Amino acid sequence: QVQLVESGGRLVQAGGSLRLSCAASGLTFSAYAMGWFRQAPGKEREFVAAISGGGAITYYADAVKGRFTISRDSVENTVYLRVNSLKPEDTAVYYCAADASWATMSQRVPRYWGQGTQVTVSS
Fold this sequence. Notes:
Helices cover about 5% and strands about 50% of the residues. By secondary structure, the chain is mostly beta strands. The strands form two sheets. Strands 2, 4, 5, 6, 9, 10 and 11 form a seven-stranded mixed sheet that branches. β7 and β8 form a beta hairpin.
């Protein structure tokens, strides 16, 4: 079955950087759009970034444009989220997601989800 395992979340000071990783298994990685979402305490889960199966297309939420970068490694079957210039409002659990359809990912309703990794930004 499809498994998505996130890692890399931790406590970091405002202005700092992190690289989140999501290792995927049980799927043909290059055929799947991959995405990152986040959920802050008391808020609904929100879209952060997505990347197409071949990696040619990326899309970001306005709140993270210019600070976050999504990428993927087809050899390691891993998707990354580089997060720079972190702000306290970036504090959230970050979830990796996968879907065979770019349209479905674009509609923010991917089929597969990881368990999440906690990012906490201190001011």
